[in-house]
Amino acid sequence: MAASKVDIWNMALTHLGELREIQSETEDTVERILCSRFYDLSLDATLRGVPWNFARSYFTLVTAAESPPTQWAYAYDYPANCLNPLHIVKDGDSKANIGRSQYEVAQDVSGLPKKIIYTDELDAILSYTVLTTDTTLFPPDFTLAVALHLGSQLAVPITNDANLKQSLIAEWRQQLFTAQVEGVRDANTGLNGNPQSDSALSDARQN
After folding, report:
1. Which residues make Cβ contacts (< 8 Å) with residue 173, sequence separation at least 6?
2. I want to staple 120 with a disulfide (CB 3.0 to 4.6 A). Which of 73, 188, 192, 199 is the partner?
3. What is the strand order of the sheet 74-77 is part of?
4. What value does the mean pLDDT of the chain take?
C-alpha cells in the first residue's frame, strides 16, 4: 500500500524519536506546520537527487521564438512540467542504447521568467524528471528517501540537534546512492524495466 503525504510526515517524525503522529494535513500542531513547510523542499531535493524511473518522461521539444546564440544551432522552450532535465536523446537511438547530445539551459534573453534549452540536435527529445506529487506513484525506496530528507530538515526545529540533522542527511545520501546503483543494474539487466518510459519515448518521437 502506498504511503500518503501524512504517512511520510510521520515517518520523518519517527526518525526524530517523535511518537505522537500527525492525523491530518490541516491539524493545528507545530509538527504539522513544520512538515508542511519543508515537505515540498524535501520532495524536490529527492526527485533531483537521482534520475528516478517512475518520474522520468520524454518530450519532443518545441522550437523557441528566440534565435539561439552562435555556439548553438537550435533553441527550444523548457517543458512546463520539467523539474530536472537529464539528457537530450540523439535522433535514431532507442531507450536501450540512448545517445546523448550536449545542451545548455539558460534564461530567456527577453528577461522574462522563462527558461530556454540550447542544443545542436534537430527535433530534440528531452529526457527529464517530472515534478511528481502523487504519493501513490512513489516506490518504497523513494518514499524512504523523502522521509529521511524531511526528517533532516525537522531535526533542528524540533529537537535542536544539529548532529541528528547531519546523520539523517548522510542516510538520505546513502539511500540515493543505493537507488542509483539499483537503477543502473536494472537498466543493464532488463530487470524491473519501465514500460511507461519506453512508451513515452515512442510517443515523443511520433509527435
Report:
1. none
2. 73
3. 74-77, 115-119, 103-107
4. 86
For 202, half-sphere exposure in the C-beta direction (CA atoms, 13 angstrom radius) is 7
pTM confidence score = 0.82
Beta carbons within 8 Å of 34's beta carbon, 6+ residues apart: 154, 157, 158
Contact 8, 147 (CB under 8 A): yes
| CA 123 vs CA 73, 77, 119, 142: distances in Å | 11, 12, 10, 32
Coil vs helix vs strand at 100: strand
**Distance separating alpha carbons of residues 152 and 147, to the nearest angstrom:** 9
On the question of pLDDT at 50 being above 80, the answer is yes
| Mean pLDDT, rounded, for 155-184 | 92
Q: Which residues contact 104 (CB under 8 A, 6 or more apart)?
A: 72, 117, 118, 119
- Nearest-angstrom CA–CA distance, 71 and 194: 35
How does residue 184 score in pLDDT terms, banded at 50, 70 and 90? low
Going by C-alpha positions, the residue among 80, 57, 79 that lies closest to residue 127 is 57
Q: Quick one: pLDDT at residue 195?
A: 43
List CB contacts of 140: < 8 A, sequence separation 6 or more.
none
Sheet holding 125-130, edge to edge: 56-60, 125-130, 82-89, 100-101
Which residues face 60 on adjacent strands? 125
| Residue ranges in the chain assigned as alpha helix (H) | 5-14, 30-49, 140-154, 162-189, 195-206
User: What single letter denotes the amino acid at residue 116?
Assistant: I
